[in-house]
Amino acid sequence: MPEKKLETLISKEQLQKRIQELGELITQDYRGKDLTLLIILKGGFLFGADLCRAINLPAYIEFLGVSSYEDEEESTGVVQITQDLKYSIEGRDVLIVEDIVDTGRTMAYLLANLKTRKPRSIHACSLLNKESKRCVDGLELAYTGFEIDDHFVIGYGLDDKGLDRNLPYIGYYPS
Ligand code: IMP
Ligand code: MG
User: Rounded to two decimals, what is the model's pTM?
Assistant: First the structure.
């Protein structure tokens, strides 16, 4: 069988343009607040690096390492914190920066866990959103880069079994 060809879903240029727009929105919304960008590792590392440079405000940059237990490419909602925060987020305006929200279980867990640490406000920003796959009710994303169809996507931080995070664009293998 011939090898499948990787197709580009979102180009490098489209990513950068949208990230600039998100940065401007966040800059307007968080002016005068105590912004902490909480970048979720590993998948959010490239998005977080570009997004923080598109925000024209003082901001704390923190990282939280998580690993979700998956079952045939779908998360189970059981999330392991592989690298916790070093500093308290109490009283801070926290914006979670994620690569993708799929079933929503990981983000629902993160919001519930982080709310117990008493931030002044907490919202979520995800580069990609697969709304059609949502399994949890009432999950709100304050900022979304792109709505995408139900493809398994790789690149720009997103991996396939640990590889391909370093692709500069978002790609997928058509079925
Ligand atoms: P959720 O808990 O189902 O929303 O899944 C969230 C996590 O699953 C993400 O943070 C990714 O690590 C992983 N994931 C979901 N969809 C994809 C995809 O299309 N490509 C790569 N990873 C994905
Ligand atoms: Mg992730």
Answer: 0.95
Q: Where are the beta strands (DSSP E) in the chain?
A: 7-10, 35-41, 60-71, 74-83, 93-101, 121-129, 143-147, 153-154, 170-172
Residue type, 119: P
The ligand 1 atom at the shortest distance from the C-alpha of residue 105 is 2
**Sequence ranges of the domains in the chain:** 7-172
Atom 16 of ligand 1 has which residue's CA nearest to it? 102
Residues having CB closer than 6 A to ligand 1 are: 43, 68, 75, 99-107, 152-154, 158
Predicted local confidence at residue 76, as pLDDT: 74
Low-confidence ranges of the chain (pLDDT < 50): none
Phi, psi at 121, each rounded to 5°:
-145, 155
Domain 7-172 sits in CATH 2.60.120.260: no
Residue 106 contacts residue 134 (beta carbons within 8 Å): no
Give me the pLDDT at residue 78, please.
80
